[in-house]
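Slack export, channel: ligand-projects

TW: morning all. Re-posting the request from yesterday since it got buried. We need the structure predicted with the small molecule present, not the apo form. The ligand is zinc ion; the SMILES is in the block with the sequence. No rush, but it would help planning for next week.
GE: picking it up
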Amino acid sequence: MWSIEDELAFREDLIAKVIAIANAGNGMLSRAELGRIEYAGKSVRVIDSYSGIWNPADAWPFPDQLRATLSINTTLKSKYSDKELGSGLWRYDYQSGSSDGKNRKMRIAMELQLPLLWFRQDESGQYVPYRVFVIEDFRDEQYCLVAPDLSLASAVYSESEIERRYAARLMKQRLHQPAFRARVLNAYQTKCAVCQLRHGQLLDAAHITPDSDETSSTSVTNGLSLCKIHHTAYDINIVGIDPNYVVHIREDVLHEVDGPMLEHGLKKMAGRQLWVPSKVQERPERDRLDMRFTQFLAG
Ligand SMILES: [Zn+2]
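GE: finished. pasting the full token output, ligand included:
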């Protein structure tokens, strides 16, 4: 068996790899893909083939076994009551039956503060990966709490209300941002809506209008899949998008003369039709675009 330090290093590396593979595309992977992740020259299963808690054993391709659960997952049809709490922590229900069995290794992850993967199923059926920690265990009630970060999670129990609110807000962002990005990129087939660049690693999900409430700003219709350049340019009003899905470039930038990025990446985008999802209900809301476009014109 690995030393705890070696297991920690292995887990961090494998988790980062799984998240990077997902983010090279739309930020999600199918259950089948998660059953054969290419890692260190081996094919590694990182999700249970049907149930929630994955404690690799027999088919594990490495000589050393893991002490603790490698992954948990939440499906859309889950019979369990996994849900987000006001504190920003997430409740994950143990597999029913006994508090031992598979759940025992979840408690080891908590005691040793070992990170694990949490896969949350999106409406498309694919899973968004998260790196999480088990924070607290309610053995009698058969559930535990998970969080994306140990120090943020401890701030949830702070005596300072400001600290608690701050931690809750950051944790909500950490949970919602990957799901929002995945939903938007999936709707846009992993393409920039302005230039149609297809490199997942270079794409973001941009908000059309900022929403003060992080939880209600996760709708695809308030999102645009944009490459890094067009995302920043949109945020600072160099790029504008009108309610008829036409791309505009700020007037003074159109008169600038510079290298190929300015010429092709920005100036030539003026007047282009935005590339939008084929499903009407996933297209950007025209009212929101209009609100933003007014700001672009005023700027
Ligand atoms: Zn672009």
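GE: first-pass observations. The mean pLDDT is 91. The longest strand covers residues 127-138.
TW: perfect, thank you
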